[in-house]
Design goal:
single chain; 142 residues; alpha/beta; globular
Length: 142
């Protein structure tokens, strides 16, 4: 049994976990992606300008992506969307793995974001931040 957080995500997953994943903040260097079990999906957040964290983004994290890993953008407005779209195109992310576009909860309408994605033909999944609906008001640890 794994005793450290790193060991827990690098050890072979238990049979009960069909699609294990681990989220990685884009503002934190994430050198462990290459040490993850091949069955574990890393979900790397890209910090858009609306987050106020764009300057802290570790772009090297995107270079460490494996084919099964995903890239997630949390989008506050049209400016964030256009910025994210250009990052996807400039870095060739659509060819590297799944893309997730999530509207900021309580801010950008998910339907409007979906319209933008469809109009531009981006191969991205639009998803809501489910934890905001399941555990409203809980900011950390979900």
């Amino acid at each position: 049994m794994a005793t450290t957080p790193t060991a827990a995500i690098t050890a072979p997953p238990r049979k009960a976990l069909r699609n294990p994943s681990v989220s990685a903040l884009g503002s934190v260097e994430c050198p462990v992606a290459s040490t993850l079990s091949v069955r574990v999906v890393a979900i790397v957040d890209v910090k858009a300008p609306g987050s106020g964290e764009e300057a802290r983004m570790h772009w090297e994290n995107l270079e460490r992506l494996r084919p099964q890993d995903e890239v997630k953008f949390v989008i506050a407005d049209r400016r964030d969307y256009e910025w994210s779209r250009e990052v996807v195109r400039a870095r060739g992310l659509a060819a590297r793995g799944p893309l997730l576009f999530s509207p900021v909860h309580g801010g950008l309408d998910p339907g409007l974001l979906a319209q933008w994605v469809l109009a531009d033909g981006l191969p991205a999944r639009v998803q809501v931040q489910l934890h905001k609906y399941l555990w409203p008001g809980v900011e950390r640890g979900v």
